[in-house]
Amino acid sequence: MAVLVSGLVVRRGGREILHGIDCAVPEGSVTGLLGPSGCGKTTLLRSVMGLQRLTGGTVTVLGRPAGHRDLRRSIGYCPQTPSVYLDLTVLENIRYFASVIGAPPADADRVLDTLRLGAHRHQIVGSLSGGQRSRASLAVALLGEPKLLVLDEPTVGLDPVLRLELWDAFAEIAARGTALLVSSHVMDEAARCHELLLMRDGILLAQESPDSLRARTGTQDLEQAFLRVIREHEAQNPPAGHTTEQIPS
Ligand SMILES: Nc1ncnc2c1ncn2[C@@H]1O[C@H](COP(=O)(O)OP(=O)(O)OP(=O)(O)O)[C@@H](O)[C@H]1O
């Protein structure tokens, strides 16, 4: 397993955000982290990256504790806010980050190609569209062919064609052996994943493949399947002192 999370509890701002998460991210596949806004996806990804103080539990990444300095060159991370220099061109950014992690110079062309950014290589990042800027950030995360790629909502703000292209690129990257952990709140992207982590309110409701989720919930529609998993969970764990929230069928 590329990532193993066990009993993860995280508090932020005096509030418990993750309530004891157990999950795993297999190598050479795309694992989708799905759940509504505010359910704790970014907090879980930050924990995998070693950027989050853990209140309890463990996070093991490529056999080492999350955040270990040996992991720096083996993991690519793309946070929600593009993390590239606005006053440099796309190529200058890529060359700079390639030198920081010791990636070979030829890697620049590979990542520009993967993200269809060749035509913009000499454009200042500050003048790119939002979607292009996200892709520039993603290109940096792909440098050095990391063993694990952690991507926080990478397709937000992208048009449907680019979204499809990006998911094709994720499949290609996984086929070369990289583990991808990709968060999204768009259920139609779930179908492109090999494995799904379904989250709600800081709890992991399920980890399984899209096919297994469809079979178990008796629906082909993954959005409906997710709603059925939520209903099932709520039926088994009614909130103390509250009536069960009505989830539309
Ligand atoms: N620094 C912080 N201090 C206190 N609470 C925080 C902090 N950062 C996030 N939170 C809270 O933690 C919860 C989970 O946030 P998180 O960003 O992990 O969710 P998310 O699922 O990634 O949401 P989104 O899809 O909107 O990005 C939210 O209720 C949020 O308000």
UniProtKB/TrEMBL annotation:
- Report the source organism: Streptomyces cupreus
A Pfam family (short name) is ABC_tran
Does this UniProt record's set of keywords contain Protein transport? no
PANTHER family linked to this entry: ABC TRANSPORTER G FAMILY MEMBER 20 ISOFORM X1, ATP-BINDING CASSETTE, SUB-FAMILY H, MEMBER 1
Keyword vocabulary terms for this entry: ATP-binding, Nucleotide-binding
- Top-rank lineage group of the source organism: Bacteria
UniProt cross-references to SUPFAM superfamilies, sorted A to Z: P-loop containing nucleoside triphosphate hydrolases (SSF52540)
Q: From the Swiss-Prot or TrEMBL record, give the protein name.
A: ABC transporter ATP-binding protein
What stretch or stretches form a coiled coil here? none
GO terms (molecular function) for this protein are: ATP binding; ATP hydrolysis activity
User: PROSITE patterns from the xrefs?
Assistant: ABC_TRANSPORTER_1, ABC_TRANSPORTER_2
Q: Where is the ABC transporter domain?
A: 3-226
